[in-house]
Amino acid sequence: MPTDPLRRKLIAIRLAESIGKGVFLSGSVVYFTLRVGLDAKQVGLGLSAAGLSAFVSSVLFGVIADRVGARRLLIVLFTTLAVGFGLYTLVGSAAQFYALVVAVGFIEYGTGPTNGALVGNLVPADERVKLKAMMRSVFNIGFSIGIGVAAVAALSQRLLVLIPLTTAALMVGAALLVTRLPDAPSRPVPVGFKRFAAVRDPRFLAVIGVSTILASHVSVILVTMPLWALNRTTLPHFLVPLLLIFNTVFVILFQVRASRGADTVAGAGRLARRSGYWLAGGCLVIALTALEDNVALACVAIVAGVLILSVAEVMQAASGWGLAFGLAPEHAQGEYLGAFDLHVITQNIVGPAVLSGLVITFGFWGWLGIALAALAASALIVPVAHRSQVTLEPEPAPATSR
């Protein structure tokens, strides 16, 4: 943990936010089905629609953060989220649920790039990746605490209302913590700079596209591996949730260490390349279970595969922060960070269906295909990152200011 007050406040904000998200994400299905009376398809459709809104909100709020200031916008976002989560207690129909869940999701996905822009504005460039690594470790701790709170609330029908109310209270707490941060100095905007430049830059979009493949560990660990283990192997079912807990603990313990050397574009590119090797290795190890149906082989291969994929995860996450901060002009941190977040958003939405479909349909060859895609992305990430970096124009003399 950092010793200076500024970084401690930033981490405290992340902790409050993560506990709230842990409470709601782990308890929302229970809340909406048992208390509101929605069926599983309605809940799934609403949550998917909320996820799709991220494609717009992530970039949009990044641009707004650059325009009005990340600190001011983050206060507004957390306060609005507190109201939104509180309104879940009044939802009584599917139509009300759809409208509110999409609105809340749209606002929620804007907090990521805004928070990143705040870090970029307040913390020196060579310290941003390490701080983000600390914040991710803290996020996993807070999310786990939130799951525990949701589990307690689910013990009783009357206590279910605590799921949205607790999340709303934590969003208020996060907003109050943001008010205690200093204002970042305004950054001059170069003459001729056009908003939404990040999503119109094909070289930057290429970095996002390659990073989307390298982020496949998200879908593989959370969805593809569990589905494969439960449906196509003889692995004891109780091991699956234990492996996910192991992955969470691994990230908490090693995310900061894995971020070393990722504070430059060149270093982040090399780390991303290595993460692809680990991702391919993890998939190939799990693929061994398709060759022989054996309990011992399944246990050893899948446990080893999750360990290898966990290494890929912490490496790729750290490299992503290094690339995002390194390729973002100082005057457009929010916009570029919001655009770079699209690689995780895309993976979260598309990855589970595509990757799970591959391995369930084609077995060993499906796992091999994912591994080959990871190796191809590893070969591409360094050159595409370098090409994107050289397109960044040097900061000209200040022309206009926000």
Question: Sheet with the most strands?
Answer: 2 strands, antiparallel
Task: Label the overall shape.
Answer: globular
Q: Into which percentage range does the β-strand content fall?
A: under 5%
Averaged pLDDT, please? 91
The CATH class of the largest domain is Mainly Alpha
Number of helices: 16
User: What's the CATH topology label of the largest domain?
Assistant: Growth Hormone, Chain: A
Alpha-carbon distance between the termini? 33 Å
**What is the string of SSEs from the N terminus onward?**
HHHHHHHHEHHHHHHHHE
- Main β-sheet, spatial strand arrangement: 1-2
Low-confidence stretches: 394-402
Query: What percent of the residues sit in helical stretches (DSSP H or I)?
Result: over 70%
Domain count: 2
Could you please describe the fold and organization of this structure?
This protein is mainly α and 402 residues long. The chain has two domains: 5-181, Up-down Bundle (Growth Hormone, Chain: A), CATH 1.20.1250; 198-390, Growth Hormone, Chain: A (Up-down Bundle). The chain has helices spanning 5-36, 40-52, 54-68, 70-87, 94-108, 111-122, 128-153, 162-179, 202-214, 217-232, 239-258, 265-287, 295-327, 333-340, 342-362, 364-390; strands at residues 188-189, 400-401. A two-stranded antiparallel sheet has the order 1-2. It is globular. The model is unreliable at 394-402 (pLDDT under 50).
